Amino acid sequence: MGSFAIIGAGISGLACGNALAAAGHQVSLFDKGRGPGGRMSTRRVDTPFGQASFDHGAQFFTERDADFQRTISALETQGAVGLWQGEFVRFDSKGKQHALGDEPRYVGTPGMNGVVRGLAAGLNTTWGMRVSGLSGRKGAWQVHGESGENLGLFDQVVCAVPAEQVSDLLAPHTPAIAVKAKAVRSLPCWAGLFAFEKPLKIDWDMARFDAHPVLDVTSAGLNQPGRTGPASYVVHGHADWSIAHLEEGADQIAALLLKELAKIAGPLPTPLVLSAHRWRYARVETSHGPGYLYDKDQGIGACGDWLAGPRVESAWVSGHHLGQALLG
Ligand SMILES: Cc1cc2nc3c(=O)[nH]c(=O)nc-3n(C[C@H](O)[C@H](O)[C@H](O)COP(=O)(O)OP(=O)(O)OC[C@H]3O[C@@H](n4cnc5c(N)ncnc54)[C@H](O)[C@@H]3O)c2cc1C
């Protein structure tokens, strides 16, 4: 039986951890987030009309890979995932509305982070722990927390964090992986979070905007499985717009995105929640392939969407395949 430290308990790190734990290995995960989510986070805000919840990262996910389908079915049985039966549309560059394909779209329940919470159940995960580095060698890797914590001694280490954060952790130990991560660029995304006492007058649940100067995707939480509370909306700014406004304040961004929401939904009532979240590294512009990286001599692997594609499912597949490779 081997021991593995996994840095990052997003969906890719957890997929890897589950593959290793299922084969009887000792797995310890460390995540800097206060709770489960990563880029599948859910933010909850109290209002006089109940708690509003916002999936401000990933909006939905697909299941095309057979192993991922099995995992999602198990999570569905546990109540951690549900099918989102909504109206999905796209607005073309002339503002004309088209139906989007009817491939099944899933969400976590009661919020998107339900998926990550479900995958973390039964694994030894420490939340609120930022890993600052490693020392040692294969068979005896020491993992260090940012406040000097000694997080234990492990045979091998998996790095499951966004590409931009890989290099600082791995460059001294496996330059080949660090160099590949450095070559990847992730695009930012500003997310506007709005809640109203009553639903807005729009006839779709999720809209994608092609060639819009500001908007990328807008979603309504109303018809998602397991959602309660006031009508909540998440408005994602387009990558170019988010880059142009990256260093502006969240209040200013929230006001700008609210104006865009009013252009598509008509005059708005006063929002119960008016907020914005900046994702500095939202989605990889070009994923690196080949799914995962493993430096066998050093006993260090890397997985995540930057190696497989900018989607929830791709991130899970990356972690799962790295887990299989470590077992092999
Ligand atoms: C705004 C937005 C919209 C999106 N929309 C969709 C969508 O609709 N459909 C879809 O399929 N995908 C979507 N995605 C992409 C999808 O969310 C990601 O591809 C996927 O969640 C990535 O998973 P991951 O495990 O690779 O990374 P992450 O989820 O980022 O997990 C990495 C984890 O590492 C932790 N971490 C980082 N550094 C450290 C450290 N030093 N020490 C400890 N922990 C650390 C972080 O806290 C995080 O939890 C979207 C993403 C964003 C941001």
H/E element string?
EHEEEHEEEEHEEEEEHHEEEEHHEEEH
Largest sheet: 7 strands, mixed
Q: Radius of gyration over alpha carbons?
A: 20 Å
Strand content: 25-35%
Q: Assign an overall shape.
A: globular
Query: What is the number of beta strands?
Result: 20
Low-confidence stretches: none
* CATH architecture call of the largest domain: Alpha-Beta Complex
Please specify the SSE layout and strand pairing.
Blueprint: E1 3-7, H1 11-22, E2 26-31, E3 43-47, E4 50-54, H2 66-77, E5 81-83, E6 88-91, E7 97-99, E8 106-108, H3 113-120, E9 124-127, E10 131-137, E11 140-145, E12 150-154, E13 156-159, H4 166-170, H5 175-182, E14 186-196, E15 206-209, E16 215-220, E17 231-237, H6 239-244, H7 250-265, E18 273-284, E19 293-295, E20 300-302, H8 312-327
Parallel strand pairs: 1-2, 1-13, 2-9, 6-15, 13-20
Antiparallel strand pairs: 3-4, 5-8, 6-7, 10-11, 11-12, 14-17, 14-18, 15-16, 16-17, 19-20
Helix pairs in contact: 1-3, 1-8
Q: What can be said about this structure in brief?
A:
The chain is of the alpha/beta class and 328 residues long. It has helices at residues 11-22, 66-77, 113-120, 166-170, 175-182, 239-244, 250-265, 312-327, and strands spanning 3-7, 26-31, 43-47, 50-54, 81-83, 88-91, 97-99, 106-108, 124-127, 131-137, 140-145, 150-154, 156-159, 186-196, 206-209, 215-220, 231-237, 273-284, 293-295, 300-302. A hairpin with a 5-residue loop joins strand 15 and strand 16.
